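Listing S7. Sequence submitted for prediction.
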Amino acid sequence: MTGVADVLVPPNSEGTRATILRWCKEVGDTVAKDEPLVELETDKVTVEIAAPVSGTLIEVLKQVNAEVIPDEVLARLRLASELIAPKEGRVDAAAPASPPAPAASNVNDARKPLSPSVRRLLSEHAIAAADIDGTGRDGRITAQDVTRHLDAQARTAAAASSAVSASINNGSQPAKARPVAPRSEQAPRHGDSRVPHTAIRRRVAEHMARSLTEAPHVTTLFEADLTRVLAHRARHAASYESRGARLTLTAYFIDACVRALRAHPEVNATFHPDALELHADVNIGVGTALGDKGLIVPVIHRAQGLNLFGIAQRLSHVVEAARAGKLTPQDVRDGTFTISNHGVGGSLLAAPIVINQPQVAILGVGKVQRRVCVVQMGDSEAISVRSMCYLTLTIDHRALDAFQANAFLNLVVTTLEHWPEEES
């Protein structure tokens, strides 16, 4: 349209879907170029979309909680230069030239283009597009239309179920009971409540299910003695803190994995049907819990170029940003390997840990425990109390075999158990 600018969902290399989190402006509001207009929430970060031009918000096409994909139109702005009174004989491009046409029939609605999110919802719930009245632009069906249709079905089913129960209790025979919807589609029982999934939770659920469906998961288990690592940390934690880096055990695991990934590049890879893509950079993601919201994986990029202090510093930054909701899209992209330190919550062992595809492996780190162990003392053995933890490596068996997994994890354990006493 002349004099009108579209506000688009920004493109990204991963094609990540997003959900409208909040509109910063309302229809009719004036907005300046680069002023925040809308916030999107993906499974990874919250992204703020700025106005591409100065003007007036004349139309919002996607409401709060609607799912959107890259390059989809979110809203339209009338350009500031078009706000002056039109000259004689000129028609405002944003104004309709004639009264709007009457709404099309359901049959015509069904033939209108459907967004990917609407197609997915219709397919998941076996609903025909012709059964839904679209309320979107030009009568298109929106995700909210499908959700309202499902809610109406659930309420109808619940009412039918209540009527059947009442007639049975009264000793009468119901005329004809309708099929009762599955429990997941019914209204909550008295006292129950439904908590809508966040965008992050929905995307995590989809990602996990797809990973387990596509990749055969196999897990190998090792045990690591962290006595030397803990001694090193005790000596250097205060110094790191004074320089702006929190020295956590995860930093040591990242450092050890970098060395193992460099020695076994097939683990630092992406599986393709026709080839295994080996990555030059070691970009290690760290699973970070966000409470009830779900899980996010910020990435330590080019970790092969960082020493332990650099790793600790970068790790502190991305974990704090993740928990504060301030990660940028770049902070969560291009990971080549992931670490899940589930031991911070008290877990000893978790297997399998779902692979963060398209990666081919994920390291699991259990809780550190003081345990009685048999240790080698020169040519003899002795009983000693050591700080031990379980390490697992879950692999995509299409890409890796047990021999490669064991060799990788053995090097990780050896690195941790022989950690030098002082900084190198």
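Caption to Listing S7: primary sequence and predicted structure tokens for the chain studied. Residues 4-82 form a domain with the OB fold (Dihydrolipoamide Acetyltransferase, E2P) fold (CATH 2.40.50.100). Residues 85-111 have pLDDT under 50 and may be disordered.
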